[in-house]
Description:
By secondary structure, the protein is an alpha/beta fold.
Amino acid sequence: MSRNAESTAFRSALEVIRAVEPRVADAIGAELTDQRESLKLIASENYASPATLLAMGNWFSDKYAEGTVGRRFYAGCQNVDTVEALAAEHARELFGAAHAYVQPHSGIDANLVAFWAVLADRVESPALKKAQVRQVNDLSEADWFALRRELGNQRMLGMSLDAGGHLTHGFRPNISGKMFDQRSYGTDPATGLIDYDRVAEAAREFKPLILVGGYSAYPRKVNFRILREIADSVGATFMVDMAHFAGLVAGKVFTGDFDPVPHAHIVTTTTHKSLRGPRGGMVLCQPELADQVDRGCPMVLGGPLPHVMAAKAVALAEARRPDFADYAQRIVDNAQALAEGLLSRGATLVTGGTDNHLVLIDVSGYGLTGRQAEQALLDSGIVTNRNSVPQDPNGAWYTSGIRIGTPALTTRGLGTAEMDQTAELIHTVLTQTTAGANADGTPSKAKYTLDPGLADKVARQATDLLATYPLYPGIDLS
Ligand code: PLP
């Protein structure tokens, strides 16, 4: 496919947009420039292909398609059926899943669909059963009261936020922590690793309905076979949220015990992180949960986004190509090179390294909070995000960690040598940044000082590092 075609497509699209609201066209162009110029180390971001991006910008966006393929609440969905079926087929083939539901609009939505499906499948409630077989009008007020009490008293055991779990894995301020009676498992304070014996102990004591595996900020492999055994031993449904590492599963870097799909009853994911697709979510499940999962829309979700499902089909087709496995392996090689580069310069890393796409730096070793480190790095052209570390004394807002990840830079083509240079830039900024003080002289968790000359110098070095690896080389908007 010619590079010219990509330039023409995006230039024409911007011309059409500019004729209506030039400021939107300008912002879209500016976003490309910003993304091209920044050293993006945000572990949850990536760059989708031009084909994936283009699949989203069309009249599929106009179509309502509540329901599932072939069973819609709206007429005229034959073309939506085509793209939804294609996306689901690619997902099933790519991950070896029995069933794929590609409608969730995001990772959180996919998790809500999964919770709904498990509750509907597992909760022994005559009232719920009646409500599901459309005898809703036969339910008395007492039935409804019993139903709410039964659904609202179920138990979830997930990884705690500061150990690397996600908000939706039972974090109390999140809806998951409110709709479920929740408990969390953490990591071993000495090693930072999941202690499976402790998880088993917590499961035996708590007897959850759902055991959740998966994470946003845990830099190691997880043994899903063991977690499934733990779930089975207490009769729990085993759910894995692979939002962060779906690309490593798709690319067969995580196989056997480390591939969640054969072990979990239900797997959720985003499609836009390491999987490199459009912004969205997806649920994979065993056949017995398929019917409930397919009720996601309209029971949990708003109308499906056909343009995004089209883009999911394109991205999943890309992920089935042999070169995606090479990409996935390079993500991990790069993360390990970045970790080595930081360790050799004296940084402290949670768990001492990485097996996946992310590295968690404990910046308290530099005398900084995550907030100070994040901002100082941003001043220097390095985009990261602050993150809690296990047992974080600075809480979830200021934090003591910086999470960095390699999916995006690997997409641009940077390799292990550039990761060492990146480690040097990060270490330079963090060693040269000093924590500031509040007006009353107490230590500030937000203020810091960094010589602007040094920040500019690092930003120029970061730009030089990226110059050899242009982002979207086939797109010229000039
Ligand atoms: N699950 C995990 C593990 C995540 O890391 C995230 C995103 O940060 C989500 C779910 C939510 O994804 P989304 O932002 O698409 O709702």
